[in-house]
Amino acid sequence: MIDRYAPFTTRWDPFSDISQLSRTMNRLFRTFPEGRAETFPAMNVYAGDEEAVVTAELPGVESNQLDVSVNGDIFTISGTRETGESRENQAWHRRERFSGKFTRSVQLPFQVESDKVRARLKQGVLQVILPRAEADKPRRIQIENK
Amino acid sequence: MTNQLSKKEKPASPGTEQTNRRPLMTPDVDILENGDDILLVADIPGVDEKHLDVEVENRVLTIRGRTAEQEPANHRLVAGEYSPADFERVFTLSEELDQEKIEASVKNGVLRLRLPKAGQARARKIEVQSE
């Protein structure tokens, strides 16, 4: 057993409870451009120099139940998650997991090459890599010295 | 019959995650029961069988998972709804469940636990005699 308050083995961080609370609150009041809270799946969008990365938590979704598309800088994910079990004489004690159809769109930080998008689904986490469109990349402008 | 598995919610405490900075979340679960067993299904995205611990001790079932998901390096987060998290949830099992015969499997970030009821604990019908 690990003793949480063992004085010399664990560094006590006075702010850890507060940051934990703030993360919990952020998760409770998730907001995205549409302004809908608690939507499935939860998504993150990351921007790099060469590409954008979108990740989504999709536990229990098979790749054939999932549809990912890009149009300009709009990324759309849709699909179905079935969580229903059908067994005889069953009683539900708890039903917290999302079940049903979902569609979500997010705006990417820039235009992407839609034919070079790669998507991978692993252990219920989707990762999509979207290379930035050549035409959209920032160009360094040479300043002439006269 | 409705309180066969009573949830013992543990606040997602930082005590068990001192070695990494990932948040500790309570996974969403479905729990359903029929005459033979209880099925517990938990969403643990990013966790595979190597980073998952399911323990039963003194009728306390603990599910603990460490996510393998890493945030992409050299990228900045522009819109965030979740942090790759570790998971923990604790349940107290009723005495009628056979702790020795619990089966667990994980697939696509979903844990399924089958908790069979012990033979003698199944509903016994008691004859009522009329006098």
Explained architecture:
- The complex is a heterodimer of chains A (146) and B (131).
- By secondary structure, chain A is mainly beta.
- Chain A has a domain at 40-83 and 100-136: Immunoglobulin-like (Sandwich).
- Helix content of chain A is 9%, strand content 35%.
- Chain A has a four-stranded antiparallel β-sheet, with no helix packed on it.
- Chain A is flat, with a radius of gyration of 21 Å.
- The N and C termini of chain A lie far apart (73 Å).
- With 131 residues, chain B is mostly beta strands.
- Chain B has a domain at 24-70 and 81-118: Immunoglobulin-like (Sandwich).
- Chain B is built from no helices and ten strands.
- Chain B has strands at residues 6-7, 24-25, 29-33, 37-43, 52-57, 60-65, 76-80, 86-92, 103-107, 110-116.
- Chain B starts with 5 loop residues before the first strand and ends in a 15-residue tail after the last strand.
- Classes of the chains: A mainly beta (146), B mainly beta (131).
- Chains A and B meet through helix 1, strand 1, strand 2 and strand 5 of A and strand 2, strand 3, strand 4 and strand 7 of B.
Keywords:
heterodimer, A: 146 residues, mainly beta, Immunoglobulin-like, four-stranded antiparallel beta sheet, three-stranded antiparallel beta sheet, 1 helix, 8 strands, 9% helix, flat, disordered N terminus, B: 131 residues
- Main sheet record of chain B: 5 strands, mixed
Task: Tell me the quaternary state.
Answer: heterodimer
Helix content of chain A: under 10%
| CATH architecture descriptor text of the domain at 24-70 and 81-118 in chain B | Sandwich
State the order of secondary-structure elements of chain B, H for helix, E for strand.
Answer: EEEEEEEEEE
Helix content of chain B: under 10%
SSE layout and pairing:
The complex is a heterodimer of chains A (146) and B (131).
Chain A: H1 16-28, E1 43-47, E2 51-57, E3 66-71, E4 74-81, E5 91-95, E6 100-107, E7 118-122, E8 125-131
Antiparallel strand pairs in A: 1-2, 2-8, 3-4, 4-6, 7-8
Chain B: E1 6-7, E2 24-25, E3 29-33, E4 37-43, E5 52-57, E6 60-65, E7 76-80, E8 86-92, E9 103-107, E10 110-116
Parallel strand pairs in B: 2-8
Antiparallel strand pairs in B: 1-8, 3-4, 4-10, 5-6, 6-8, 9-10
